[in-house]
Design a protein that fits this description.
Structural class: alpha+beta
Mean pLDDT: 93
Number of strands: 10
Radius of gyration: 17 Å
Helix content: 40-55%
Number of helices: 10
Shape: globular
Number of domains: 2
Largest sheet: 4 strands, mixed
Strand content: 15-25%
Distance between the termini: 26 Å
Order of helices and strands: EEHHHHEEEEEEHHEEHHHH
Amino acid sequence: MKPKFYNIDNILVSKNLFTKKFSCDLEKCKGACCTMKSDYGAPLLEPEIEEIKKIYDIVKNYLPEHSIKEIEKNGFWEEKEGMLLTKSIRKRDCVFVYWDGDIAKCAIEKAYFDKKIKFRKPISCHLFPIRITNFGGPTLKFEEYQECKPALKKGKKENTNVIEFCKDSLTRGLGKQFYKQLQKINGK
């Protein structure tokens, strides 16, 4: 049986990241990754919590009033089962969601693109649909959701795999050298 992972610098990388075609189609999914029904929000790293605390006064200018009230009453993060997570509203919308028409978007990322802050968004959000799990060490795997079916179709049409789609986030999270190794495996 062939292994289903590549080992790159002691990080296991699922082979399906190279074979799955994927390219977000916001017009069809409507930003579902920010509004999925779940008991868990987006994973956070401790330094990200501190960074978001520093930039919150800027980010809140992009948030709807109900999100500001929620954050100011209950905070924007929680710990569950040893994981640090963003909070959600009604177990659905991330507290940092704002609406651009009928599409859910990230207020942190909006402030970043408006050049108001230097932090783009939590790395777990930026890496999506890649999830980092830990099976005795970091493991990168493709997280498939029904809501992302349009992204699979668009990825096939554009001939873009998950590795290519997540180039910026993989480079940000794991470095340029790591991404170069992914490119070699990807044949690029």
